[in-house]
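As agreed, record minuted below.
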Amino acid sequence: MSKLEKILYISTGGTIDKGYPRNIRGYAFEFQDPPAALQIFQRAKIGPFIEILHVKAFAKDSQEITEEDRAVIEKIVSENPVSRVLLTHGTDTILETATFLQKHFPDRIFVLTGSFLPAVFRDSDAEFNLGMALGAVQSIREPGAYVALQGLTERCDRLKRNLENGDFERIQ
């Protein structure tokens, strides 16, 4: 019998968790509850060999994430001695949060992911990115903070954001 693998999943908001406005006068996307990843995990029928421990840090657009918010994430990680951590996060400041985590927890494995379109959209990249991130957080052996987006999983200090097209690229 194989050992149950525990993965801490921290939700922080970002585009992946945005949904349609709840009232008829609403015009902006609102954060949905529960987070999209929990719904995707449930639909995917993840096997009994993984235990996903979910903690909601907050629900924000990543452009609004502050150092105080990152301290909330730091506290959650400190209180949960799980070695593998998956975070859903907005793509705009995902590298900054990954760098923060890698600095503060050098012995843990983090995989951060998000999406360019909300998970509720039919053509969203959310399910693909989340599946990639879940596979990565289970298989990566070297501690650090990684970003899994657009078919690429790489340590945060080896990635940059192309400001012209928004894509993530390896640093050469």
